[in-house]
Amino acid sequence: MITDRISLNAALKYLDQFEQNEGNIIDVLFSVRNNTSSVSTTTTFNNLSVLRAFIDKYTPLKAFEDVDCSPLLLFELKKFSIIKNATDKNFIYVDDSIFITKSNNINQFSLESFNRDYGRDITEIKSVFSSIKINEYILNQLEYVKCGYLEIHTEESMESLKKLYNKYK
Q1: Residue ranges of the domains in the chain?
Q2: Could you give the CA distance from residue 121 to residue 125 in angstroms, rounded to a whole number?
């Protein structure tokens, strides 16, 4: 519940700025990864209002407690579209960690700013997310040990995550 809020809020912040400059954002696609698995899934939001409602409902602002009792998910933005100049065919998608578009309707300065700012933040978030290590006292402890009985993640990982949470919550 912590890392998903951090990663979604960072994306929402820059998508909101992009929408103010370029036009209504629709069809927002994220990849979602769990910190205990290398498998990614995807999820789509119709627009920023739906994304904002999802963040409020499923990743509410809360105290940094019981982090070990919640799955740590990373949402990484992959593509979105803009409604501009009477068309919704203004696709913006990630290619080799940089967002690009083939649409002539999108201002390149807006896209460069988005790449710089969101790119910087998601790189920081991914770095902390990747460094979250599990202290495995017991083999497969996530399945067998009651939450809160043992500290699952290393103390260093949690300190880094706490700083990040305070920055992006």
Answers
A1: 2-168
A2: 6
Scan for tokens 């969101």, then name that residue: 118
Would you say 79 and 43 are in contact if contact means Cβ atoms under 8 Å apart? Answer: no
Measured in whole angstroms, how far is the alpha carbon of residue 45 from the centre of its chain?
13
Q: Mean pLDDT per segment of 10 residues, for the chain of length 169 residues?
A: 89 97 96 86 97 93 64 92 92 95 95 97 91 58 50 66 80
Contact in structure between 5 and 16 (CB atoms under 8 Å): no
> From the centroid of its chain, how far is CA 92?
17
Task: Give the residue among 148, 161, 159, 152 at the shortest CA–CA distance from 134.
Answer: 152
Instruction: Please list the residues that pair with 122 across neighbouring strands.
Output: none
CA angle 50, 86, 23 (to 5 degrees): 45
Q: Where are the alpha helices (DSSP H) in 23-154?
A: 48-58, 108-131, 141-144
